[in-house]
Write a structure and sequence with these properties.
133 residues
Length: 133
């Protein structure tokens, strides 16, 4: 599940970073997406048969991972060596092979560029393209 969580957190980290540029309504949408993400974690863990206390204990590290990756995504995009920092992040979290992590870093850069061209309404309606890897 860790690989899927990493990919999810990186995508949501990019999306949350872009939503912040859209003022108060962007912040509200960002919070709503976060709430849905946590609710989805809860449902998935309960489907695995975990108890209330086990779910709470397991969600905390998942939420921490999300905030860590969101911060790392933001830092990478604010860096002068954006692609290099993204490649490092991908290498640490998803793909250790240098060839693949650079390609995936380019993917996340393209994903950001696609989202960054959209209005808040388009983002809210999911009217954006997922770039090819």
């Amino acid at each position: 599940m860790t690989g899927r969580m990493e990919v999810l957190c990186l995508h949501l980290g990019v999306l949350h970073m872009v939503l912040r540029k859209h003022g108060e309504n962007g912040a509200l949408l960002s919070q709503a997406l976060y709430d849905v993400m946590v609710d989805d974690f809860d449902i998935a863990l309960r489907e695995e048969g975990l108890s209330d206390t086990a779910v709470k204990r397991r969600i905390k590290p998942m939420v921490k991972m999300f905030f860590d990756r969101a911060r790392q995504v933001r830092d990478a995009f604010q860096s002068e060596d954006r692609r290099g920092k993204l490649a490092e992040l991908v290498m640490k979290s998803i793909v250790p092979e240098a060839e693949n992590n650079r390609r995936i870093a380019r993917y996340f850069e393209s994903f950001h560029n696609e989202l960054d061209t959209k209005t808040l309404g388009q983002l809210a309606l999911g009217q954006f393209e997922i770039p090819p890897i």
